[in-house]
Amino acid sequence: MIPHDITSPRLTLTAIDERHVGQRYLAWMTNPAVVEFTESRFSSPTIDDLRSFVAGSRASTDSYMFAIEITETGDHVGNIKLGPVNSHHKRGAIGIILGEQSAWGRGIATEAVTALSSWAFDELGIEKLIAGIYAANLGSVRAFEKAGFAVEGRQVDEVILADGTRGDALILGRLAR
Length: 177
Description:
Elements: E1 6-7, E2 11-15, H1 23-29, H2 32-35, H3 47-59, E3 64-70, E4 76-86, E5 91-98, H4 108-124, E6 128-134, H5 138-146, E7 150-160, E8 166-175
Parallel strand pairs: 5-6
Antiparallel strand pairs: 1-2, 2-3, 3-4, 4-5, 6-8, 7-8
Helix pairs in contact: 4-5
């Protein structure tokens, strides 16, 4: 299912497609500052890799990936994903990447997470959302907390950070009720 656009005061979340794949997206995914707290930092994607990833996302039956666009300008500043969605347990996971560093610290991640959460609860009947975040990614943790998520668990020394040290991962969750 290709979902309709989700709007918020400043943003439009639109189903990601091939028009979103270009040098800008590639620059995000190869920028160490952008991918520092993602598993993407372990690869060096090409445009073709990103095209395949987007095509796979669009073909998924249990995940929804959106481009985050600034409504006023149409600028694509990041991506947000809901999935996989488990329809039996009415739960799903949210992941986000803000590629444009000019978008950092402006509440855009919080607004995108809030909008996608509302859509998941209201349109899909999801009852529980989770997010897995490196504990060192303070900006992302704050964004999810401002969007109504709470830390539900800490996985001690779960990940290797960019500097080679071990770090904790957090599980954040939010219920529809």
